What we know:
By secondary structure, the protein is of the alpha+beta class.
Amino acid sequence: MVDRRDDTGASDEPRAVRPVAAEPPRFPPGIAGKRRKPWLAKRRILGRTLRGILAMSDGHLPEMVDLWVASWVKTLPSIDFEARRPWLVDHLGAARAKGAVVRVAIVETGDVVGFVLIDPASGYLDQIAVHPDQWGAGIAEALIGEARRLSPEKIVLDVNADNPRAVAFYVRQGFREIGRGVNARSGLATLKLEWRRTEG
Ligand SMILES: CC(C)(COP(=O)(O)OP(=O)(O)OC[C@H]1O[C@@H](n2cnc3c(N)ncnc32)[C@H](O)[C@@H]1OP(=O)(O)O)[C@@H](O)C(=O)NCCC(=O)NCCS
C-alpha cells in the first residue's frame, strides 16, 4: 500500500467533514423579547392609554406616592424625595381638609399614573405629577384640563426655574410668567406662572 503522507506526516486523503450544528437565529434583545412576550408590548401601550380622570380615594394613595417620588427623583435627582413620602401624605390630607381637590389619572391597565392637587377657590395648583414611564403620553394634559374645569377662570402655580420639562409643558398649555421667587424648602429659584381664561 502506498503511503500518501508527506514529510509532515499529513495525509492528502480527503477527510470526513464533521457536520457543524446550525447556529440558532439571533435577534437583538428587544425584538427577541417582543417575539417571545407580545403581551409586554400590549401592556406598555395600555399603560400609556388614559382610561379616565377620577376623584382621589384613599386606596389610590400608595400608587400616588410612588409615582410622585419616581417623577421627582427623575426631575431633581439631587434631592432625597424618598424621605418626603410622609410629607406628601400629610400635605395632601391637610390640603383636602381645607377644600383643595385631588384628581387621579387611571390608565387602561388600571394603574394610577398621575395626579393633580388644586384649590378651586384660589386657582392655586399645588401639585401635578405623572409617572416617568407615562411622560409624553398626554396624561399631564388631561390633568391640566381637569384643573381648568375645576378652576375655569385662572390657575396659578410655582415651578422650579430649573425644571425645563415642566416649564415647557406649562408654556405649551398657555401659562405665562408673572413673577419669580425661591422655594422655602429647597432654596431653589422658582417661577410663578399663571393661566387665565381668554374670551372666545
Ligand atoms: C411636569 C409633568 C407633569 C409634565 O408631564 P409630561 O408628560 O412630562 O409632559 P409633556 O411630555 O406633555 O410635555 C413636556 C414637554 O417638555 C419638553 N421637554 C422635555 N425635556 C425638556 C427639556 N430638557 N427642556 C425643554 N423642554 C423639554 C417635551 O418635549 C414636551 O414638549 P412637547 O410636547 O412640546 O414636545 C411631568 O414631567 C412630571 O411629573 N414631572 C415631575 C413633577 C413636576 O415637575 N411637576 C411640576 C411641578 S410645578
